[in-house]
Write a structure and sequence with these properties.
acyltransferase activity, transferring groups other than amino-acyl groups; alpha+beta; Protein N-acetyltransferase, RimJ/RimL family; eight-stranded mixed beta sheet; 8 strands; Aminopeptidase; transferase; GNAT_dom; Acyl_CoA_acyltransferase
């Protein structure tokens, strides 16, 4: 069984389900380089699991097969003007409690600091609240990734926890950062945030 295909359109960003035809390009963006720049900011204390193109195809197929028909697709491509620049995702911290966390990866540095990730997360969080009975959406990062923390703040996510000096990277300690937004908070501020963000793009 697989989830329904997803297709979300923003002002400059499109989110869509991954197809078989996307596997090779995604593999090149994520796994081709041994030390990609994006991984230095995206939980670098966890090593990037190596994949060949064939093993990555199998991984993506298995991910979709694990989803039930009533679940939204758990990973979508971020596309700008027809170019794949990254992905958004979610995972269940505890499914029985509907505790869900989101993630985002912009694999092409030339698209950093341009507002694309912010718009993608607006679309993604809004979509998840609309299709799942969630009380909260969470986002976990680390204290060196200040860009990610600023994006969370712009979107109305609150700092809910800081676990101090629990991550080591390049010999230095960093904090784990937990952020989140409740459904009622998102509904109250979403339209205002979207207008503010889009007007700056």
């Amino acid at each position: 069984m697989t989830a329904k295909e997803s297709f979300l359109i923003g002002k400059r960003v499109k989110l869509r389900s991954i197809t078989e035809q996307d596997h090779e390009q995604l593999w090149k963006l994520i796994y081709k380089d041994k030390d990609p720049e994006w991984k230095k900011w995206d939980a670098p204390y966890y090593p990037l699991e190596p994949h060949t193109l064939d093993s990555y195809r199998s991984y993506e197929r298995a991910r979709k097969e694990r989803l039930s028909p009533d679940e939204p697709d758990s990973r979508l491509i971020i596309e700008v003007d027809g170019d794949i620049i990254g992905t958004v995702s979610y995972y269940w911290e505890h499914k029985a409690s509907l505790w869900l966390e989101v993630g985002i990866g912009i694999y092409r540095p030339e698209y950093w600091n341009g507002g694309y990730g912010t718009e993608a997360l607006i679309l993604w969080i809004d979509h998840l609240f609309s299709v799942l009975p969630l009380a909260r959406v969470g986002l976990t990062t680390w204290s060196k990734n200040e860009r990610m923390m600023r994006v969370g703040e712009k979107l109305g996510l609150k700092l809910e926890g800081r676990i101090r000096k629990c991550r080591i990277y390049e010999g230095k300690h960093y904090d784990a950062i937990r952020m989140g937004v409740l459904r009622e908070e998102w509904e109250a501020i979403h339209s205002t945030i979207e207008k503010q963000i889009v007007s700056k793009l």
